[in-house]
Write a structure and sequence with these properties.
- Helix content is 54%, strand content 3%.
- It is mainly alpha-helical.
- It has two domains: 11-114, DNA polymerase, domain 1; 130-308, Orthogonal Bundle (hpI Integrase, Chain A).
- A two-stranded antiparallel sheet has the order 1-2.
- Strand 1 and strand 2 (191-195) form a beta hairpin.
- The protein is globular, with a radius of gyration of 23 Å.
């Protein structure tokens, strides 16, 4: 994303700000989601102001949207590359959401349903097999407290399917290790219960026993200055730090994939479904609003189809 965008203050800017406030207050969207929408819509505002100076948002039409999409298709990102089709769609999705908000609030404009999104190539679902998870966790040096922390992070991610934002926000008094479950609030303010496996409970317990501090965050950093104010809030690991930890051990384990925290979330869901869990239960554990989101896993985890293939395909012995 552009680090510095020219500031454009006009009537559309005010409408965009109202929409972002709506996302924050009424839709309870995360700060990350709001940041992304702000970026996408600021880009549209800049383009619209520069290229359609005599047009207001109430006069927006499909011909103008097509010109904007041509601009997006040729837009160069920070790495000097044109935007991928899926990224272009994010900009258009943000525009459609803004238009839907405007119409809902009696601002006449283009009907967003008229703007169609092109189909993008389906991306293969990336997940780790249990053997690969084991290779990662056994590659961690747990002779030091930092290594025990890293092992606890991996075990908890694979046990719960937490998003990275949900993991970093955890406090150590939030997890009931006796009941092996705890509550989290995920995307859109949706609360759910997640469950801690035997292995995750063992390593989180061991990590907390090693801790000699009284800091509130469950996972803390071990580099830099120790800051004790506000319950050690500034000692909390960031999402970027968690991603770096995951990538570090994927390299150490020499896995042939570029795994991320979200890969572990995919692995959690795939493991459950492969072993016979029903889709609705996995939807609940992942915190998906719609079951259609969870269904992306079914093409790699359909146990019934796998059993049919094993029983009837002539290539199986």
């Amino acid at each position: 994303m552009d680090n510095k965008l020219p500031v454009v203050v006009n009537a559309l800017s005010g409408l965009i700000n109202q929409f972002l406030e709506y996302l924050e207050i009424e839709k309870n969207c995360s700060k990350l989601t709001i940041r992304d929408y702000r970026h996408y819509l600021e880009i549209f505002n800049i383009w619209f102001t520069q290229n359609m100076p005599s047009m207001s948002i109430r006069n927006l039409d499909l011909a103008t949207v097509r010109k904007y999409r041509v601009y997006l298709a040729n837009r160069i990102d920070a790495k000097g590359m044109t935007l991928k089709r899926v990224t272009q769609n994010y900009y258009v999705i943000a525009l459609r959401s803004l238009l839907r908000f405007l119409i809902k609030n009696d601002h006449p404009t283009l009907e967003p349903s008229k703007i169609e999104l092109p189909k993008t190539e389906s991306r293969s679902l990336k997940f780790l097999e249990r053997e690969q998870i084991d290779r990662i966790v056994t590659s961690i040096d747990t002779s030091k407290e930092e290594g025990i922390r890293d092992r606890a992070i991996f075990e908890l991610l694979f046990s719960t399917g937490l998003r990275v934002s949900e993991l970093v926000s955890l406090n150590h008094n939030q997890i009931n290790l006796d009941r092996r479950e705890f509550g989290v609030v995920g995307k859109g303010g949706r609360a759910r219960v997640v469950f801690v496996s035997d292995r995750a409970e063992e390593w989180v317990t061991r990590y907390l026993k090693e801790r000699k501090d009284n800091f509130k965050p469950l996972f803390i950093r071990y580099s830099g200055k120790i800051i004790e104010e506000n319950g050690g809030e500034k000692m909390r690991l960031t999402a970027r730090s968690i991603e770096r930890i995951v990538k570090k051990y994927v390299r150490v384990a020499r896995l042939p994939v570029d795994a991320t925290v979200h890969t572990l979330r995919h692995s959690f869901a795939t493991d459950l479904l492969t072993n016979g869990a029903d889709l609705r239960s996995v939807q609940e554990m992942l915190g998906h609003k719609n079951i259609a989101t969870t269904q992306i896993y079914t093409h790699v985890t359909n146990k019934q189809l796998r059993d049919v293939h094993k029983s009837f395909h002539s290539g199986n012995k």
